[in-house]
Design brief:
There is one protein chain. It contains 22 helices and no strands. By secondary structure, it is mainly α.
Length: 442
């Protein structure tokens, strides 16, 4: 959500020299300010959890199948699957223009809640089918979406409730992580970013890998239907559907933290997928109630891999904001095709064993995981190298993490090394190439 793009101002190298002279006290002050900033952002960004909960409540009403939704609407054969799949058509059509508009407008705190409010109205109107629950779901979505406008941040340079010091630090933190860096090409426009995205083979490879991967994830859409195969009534079935995802939430948090700490993406993703694949195999092999319910816990663990996967994909395109906005939109938009296909993987006549459905999910998961592994083998993991104009100083970069040119790193350097960085500042400004620290101090 927070990005360092469209930051036009540049810092004077003398500012860095002045700041770097403050030594340990400046480091301590920076750490204190950083803790306050992260705490403030975490608190406000927690509303995203509520927005996502309502998002999934509104668009994954597959549980209505258990409450006679098909019978009430006189749906037969593949008609129910078709109804479920239609929602993803909107994702495919609007993902790219939506992200490009977001990059141009620079007001995610308005655009995202506004989109959710509109969807909440549409979801509420579904109540015309005499399902009063849809009125409650849609109304809650609209209410929370309006509240989110005043809570969510925009970008660091235009978030109104950030102090100047917090704003500068937020930009610096993103720049240190490689987001929003402006290199030799300079700042790219929205249309240039789109061209950069569609010209990158990784965008298309990841899109097709995710299409297949989302077919494997189709079990989540029909999860209440899968749980119902244990023979309980509707109320108990819906209650039993929750615990696997509660455990998956805990696992997702733990795996994401471990992935960040160890700077390892694919292996964490692979372990999550392997666990889910084991769940598919177990469900294919038995109808034993206890064992089958245990397999559902295993299947739900694929959610943890999803968190790591999207962090990995975002890091692949962290360099230029315009390209990142378009690339993520294309990937996420096209990948929804997998959800459309997946809606037809769980027909009622394949139940109650759904062995064929599990087999399809297992095969799709194996193929997609292999495709993601191929991306890693191709050397397309996020670049940890310096920009071209810093290559002569690449020996100063620590192995395993890019040491970006910013005041925090200058203060950590020995005087002789710090002087080299200050020289880089001066040379980059004179040659018209904006350094990373120019962005971080805008």
């Amino acid at each position: 959500m927070m990005s360092a793009h469209n930051v036009e101002k540049s810092a004077d190298p003398t500012d860095v020299i002045d700041e770097s002279s403050s030594g340990v006290s400046s480091d301590r002050a920076r750490r204190d300010l950083e803790r306050r900033l992260v705490r403030k952002l975490d608190l406000r960004m927690s509303v995203i959890v509520v927005l996502n909960v309502l998002n999934y409540v509104d668009r994954t009403n597959a549980s209505a199948r258990l409450a006679g939704f098909e019978k009430d609407l006189h749906l037969q054969g593949k008609q129910y699957a078709t109804v479920l799949s239609i929602v993803y058509v909107g994702y495919i059509l609007m993902q790219l223009p939506g992200n490009m508009l977001l990059h141009w407008l620079e007001r995610p705190a308005i655009l995202i809640p506004a989109s959710m409010a509109i969807w909440g109205v549409v979801s509420g109107l579904t109540g015309i089918t005499k399902k009063w629950l849809f009125y409650i779901e849609g109304g809650a979505t609209v209410l929370v979406a309006i509240s989110a406008i005043f809570i969510l941040p925009d970008f660091p340079h235009n978030t109104r409730w950030l102090t100047p010091e917090e704003r500068a630090l937020a930009i610096s933190r993103l720049t240190e992580d490689g987001y929003g860096r402006v290199d030799v090409l300079g700042k790219r426009t929205t249309m240039q970013g789109l061209w950069d995205a569609v010209s990158d083979w990784k965008v298309w490879w990841l899109s097709f890998a995710l299409i297949i991967h989302f077919v494997a994830l189709s079990f989540a859409i029909y999860f209440p239907t899968i749980v119902s195969t244990m023979g309980y009534d509707t109320t108990v079935t819906l209650l039993l559907s929750a615990p696997p995802w509660v455990l998956a939430t805990i696992t997702s948090f733990a795996l994401s933290r471990y992935s960040d700490k160890k700077r390892e993406r694919f292996m964490c993703f692979f372990v999550s997928c392997a666990t889910a694949a084991l769940g598919f195999v177990v469900s294919m092999c038995t109808m034993n109630m206890g064992v089958r319910y245990f397999s559902m816990f295993l299947m739900a663990q694929i959610a943890a891999g999803q968190m790591v996967l999207w962090g990995w994909i975002n890091n692949m395109f962290a360099r230029e904001p315009a390209k990142r906005a378009a690339a993520i939109a294309v990937i996420n938009g096209l990948s929804q095709t997998g959800n459309i296909i997946g809606s037809f993987v769980w027909p009622s006549n394949w139940g109650p064993t759904y062995r064929y459905s599990y087999a399809v999910c297992f095969a799709a998961l194996a193929v997609s995981t292999g495709m993601f592994g191929a991306v890693l083998d191709a050397g397309t993991a996020p670049s940890l190298q310096a920009p071209q104009y810093l290559k002569p100083f690449s020996h100063l970069h620590a192995i395993g993490r890019e040491e970006t040119v910013s005041t925090i790193h200058c203060r950590k350097r020995l005087p002789a090394e710090r002087d080299v960085y200050i020289l880089v500042f001066a040379l980059s400004r004179r040659s018209g190439l904006r350094s990373q620290a120019d962005v971080s101090h805008a």
